């Protein structure tokens, strides 16, 4: 059973400056909910109850969001506005939240390694909250947990992207072993379209077995001087098996302004116009 979900949330979020100057990008709201809350809800739907968050500067808003606000509770108790807090109250009651800090921004791989202290020696999920996923049936992480229960190895979520955009993603190459499931034979971080091995791009959902921490430790800084999770996963794939899963559902890149606006329009149409 996978109970823990790690949220690397230490990035600078430069594409959203100045909004992210004093506030983590994961607190940007799509409609009335911050991105990280969508992520936590997806993890809960997948059966997880232990949320581990890797933060950097400006962490307070994240911690406060998943804590009880006594003044606010007191203020709106018994009023018609109380229901606005229902969803977040449920999450706070169902889950534990713990935090650790990545002192230097040395990349996603390094952020995940920083989270080892909160995860320990068990398989775990990773959500990059700025990739907002939605599916009318099972959530993306839930689909991945089902696959993990079958294969018991690390899994990355992938989607087909426009071939001109491969230089924005980790790109995989592999053999399709069942519909939408690939055994990875090659992985490249942000390749130019001319040299990309495919257009199957890794998005922000992972299931990782704990030996990944040792692979990250041995990973040298790669593209951009950062320790890339893609490089560590490639080493893990070479020494065993890593799968890529073409998930069912939609994904919005809320780390970019266009993706964020698209997500806002999508969720507005879904929740307010029915
Ligand atoms: P991004 O590549 O989106 O970087 O990181 P960013 O800093 O958040 O955003 P921009 O590009 O400056 O606008 C992908 C994910 O990895 C986390 C980020 O928080 C984000 O969820 N991350 C990245 C870390 O936690 N630590 C790092 O050192 C790098």
In short:
The protein has 274 residues and is α/β, with parallel strands linked by helices. The chain is built from 10 helices and 13 strands.
Structural class: alpha/beta
Heterogens: uridine 5'-triphosphate
> What percentage of amino acids are in beta strands?
25-35%
What is the total tally of β strands? 13
> The biggest beta sheet, please?
5 strands, mixed, barrel
What is the domain tally? 1
What does this structure look like?
The protein is α/β, with parallel strands linked by helices and 274 residues long. The protein has one domain (4-272): Spore Coat Polysaccharide Biosynthesis Protein SpsA, Chain A. It contains ten helices and 13 strands. It has helices at residues 35-45, 60-65, 70-76, 86-94, 108-114, 116-119, 140-151, 212-217, 229-239, 257-272, and strands at 4-9, 29-30, 33-34, 50-55, 96-101, 124-127, 131-134, 154-160, 170-178, 181-189, 200-208, 242-246, 250-253. Strands 8-11-9-10-12 form a five-stranded mixed barrel. α5 (108-114) crosses α9. The chain is globular, with a radius of gyration of 18 Å. It starts with a strand and ends with a helix. The model has no long low-confidence stretch (mean pLDDT 95). Bound molecules: uridine 5'-triphosphate. Uridine 5'-triphosphate binds at residues 8-15, 25, 54, 102, 105-108, 110-111, 128, 130, 255.
